[in-house]
Design a protein that fits this description.
It is a single chain. The protein is of the alpha/beta class and 517 residues long. Among the domains are: 3-51; 70-358, Alpha-Beta Complex (Inosine-uridine Nucleoside N-ribohydrolase, Chain A). Helix content is 29%, strand content 19%. It contains 15 helices and 18 strands. The chain has a six-stranded parallel sheet, sandwiched between helices. Strands 13-18-17-15 form a four-stranded mixed sheet. A hairpin with a 6-residue loop joins strand 17 and strand 18 (506-516). Helix 8 packs parallel to helix 10 (231-238). The longest helix has 18 residues, at 116-133. It starts with a helix and ends with a strand.
Length: 517
Amino acid sequence: MNGATDLFAARQPAGGDAQARLCGQAMRDGQREKHPRKLARLLAIAATLATFAWPVAAQAPLPAPTERQRMIVLSDIEADPDDTQSFVRLMLYANQIDLEGLVATTSIHMKTSTHPESIRRIIQAYAKVRPNLVKHEAGFPTPDRLGALVSEGQPDYGMVAVGTGKDTAGSRLIIQALERDDPRPLWISVWGGVNTLAQALHTIRETRTPEAARRLIAKLRVYTISDQDDGGAWIRRNFPEIFYVVSPGGYGAGTWTGIHTVIDGADNRTVSNSWLRDNIQQGHGPLGALYPDVSYGMEGDTPAFLSLIPNGLSDPEHPDWGGWGGRYELYTPAVATTDPSGFSGVTIEPETRPIWTNAIDTFTPQVAQDFGRAHTTAERSKDFRAGIWRWRDDLQNDFAARMDWTTRPFAQANHPPEVRLAHPNRLTVKSGQRFVLSAVDSTDPDGDSLSFQWLHYQEIGHWQSAIPNGIAANIHTVDFTAPIVTAPREAHFIVRVTDKGTPPLTRYKRVIVTITP
């Protein structure tokens, strides 16, 4: 339901009837003129009820995001099961990201073949559930639209397959997307080898004017979890201006491993085989049934697109701000820090320029209590993987809820809350000044109760010492006192708003506070 009529029709006993009863009582008391104070009190309560918006589930599908990131996927699907896992998840967010290509590629793990037919098989399953998905949220592309995006790169490994006259349907698709009259950046989400992108860049440099080449290359944003062929090092060396997110070296040093790593002392249920069985694979229609069992690691490629999902947490242009896909800082990593002797199969080369790569987060989770407010426990994690796993339950619950959408009607599924700040998302305060942050106006489309958590994201910005709040962090409105600074400093605050539906769903807002002397 939506609109005022539906809103009050669904909750009339709690609102309209109560208001009518109070007004009637007030009128009777007024007629008797015996209790003027009671009359005033009852009329005040009735007026409050008249303006109170009782939350109720909307039956029309929720709108798709108005701004979406453009993305092309390069995948060595069939090299191992996790690419199929990532594609199944991606189909559930196909209305949240503007997909412009789904390209089958090779990698160090599959050097001589590509498998676009496997991508098409997933789209066929998506076609069966799309009629139900669009009941929950608008904007899911048609299966024909997705099928037209499927392509393939070179059926050979690495840079030996790159050169003049070696263009492929996949490399041409990348160039066509870059030349499209669209001012938005183009993200290349790399789940395998990157030689198809290397071929596109080779052709651009060879056939376009220097000015045209610079204009096209400036649009590129690359997120490759780790190098899976020798094309990544070649691109970073020959095109130092390209925005490039990667954890070079052995896979053990990859930020992306935070999506499936079992963390000692933490609740790891949402990445367990039993959780995947119950929430994704079984009883969730033909798309969920395609999700394969974990063979190596669950969805190692998925972080390459998670931060493009518009959930209020990440800004893709600022990987150092963090998000579901992890947090990365811009620097030139030393080879010794990249686990060069670890498993990857790709020769490790020294980086020649700064790249967006592993950043350390310190994360102490809050634990709900049976009585009173949540408490923080002892420090659980301080490493590069924490940039993902601190949000892992949120992103897994979101995955499970959207998988529910493939089989359930709107009223029997959960939908994410809408976070609304009571102030701008950028504030300026003076040293020592008390300031208030509030998400009191947040709502939920299903009428669910909401929980709030405010946090100072200490690793981001210029002020990395803790800025404590004056009261509990798990309420919609909190106050902080700005530290004393001698020069302007930025601090980032995140509000995490979670509904009490099943599974619980979370959205965020970020507030950047500039503190001046």
